[in-house]
Amino acid sequence: MTTGHSARLPTGALGTAFVVLWCTGYPVARIAxxxxxPFTLLVLRFGFASLIYAALARYAQAPWPRGRQALHTVLxxxxxxxxxxxxxxxxxALGVNVGLIALVISTMPIVTxxxxxxxxxxxxxxxxxxFVFGLGGVALALGASIHxxxxxxxxxxxxxxxxxxxxxLGTVYQKRxxxxxxxxxxxxxxxxxxxxxxxxxxxxxxxxxxxxxTLFVSLGWLxxxxxxxxxxxxxxxxxxGAVNQVATLFFLMPPVTAVLDYLALGDVLTRWQVSGIxxxxxxxxxxxxxxPR
Length: 293
What we know:
This protein is mostly helical. It is built from 13 helices and no strands. Helices cover 75% and strands 0% of the residues. The longest helix is centred in the last third of the chain and has 28 residues. 46% of the residues are buried.
């Protein structure tokens, strides 16, 4: 997965494909959650993805992480997969508005930059400017749909904060300590760990699901397109570029998701959202510029 065709494709093309694939998970998950409990859905998704990644690793005779590499891989799986998705899904289940969740998670580039500064990775002035435009575009696209009224308690927002920390710290950790691990075997182990970590929550909600065709189709999409394609491209991009440049792509997630919601679910696409897409795209352009030689 890390060599061959993906090694020859331009990074811009891989980044575009990553954003589109990753964003499809939001409307598809909304469809699947009408037929399945949130943690049950995550356990099924990560469990099936781990089996496919393990089969790919076995077919390619890829080496499995051992010793310290295995420990790093386990911790990345807990942060990047279990904590990120578990926290976000728990926040949604406790009543946090989906638009607010998307807005908070889209600040990942800024939090990642702060973690990167602590570990010695510089942030260029142009990248900070890109962060400002990117965050502004996200706020413009989602501001009209976010409601901060009463309802969710402190626990819901703590879960959302944990999700943000999980994806931010996990991204830096993957770049620093996971780059030497084969993607197939590494992601297999990460998904196994995430499945085991979230299984108690799925059992608590009673493994709630139905046997509808809609659930099976949406689950298959989440496994193949998002867990395999999305995470595979994400880690390939991390190996190619700096953490801050790759993380900046997340500013595009909420605006692009709004377009996909419009196309797939018929949600209204407003002028504010279109303007936010353009501003977020400018932020990504500035934030992903290579440093001057």
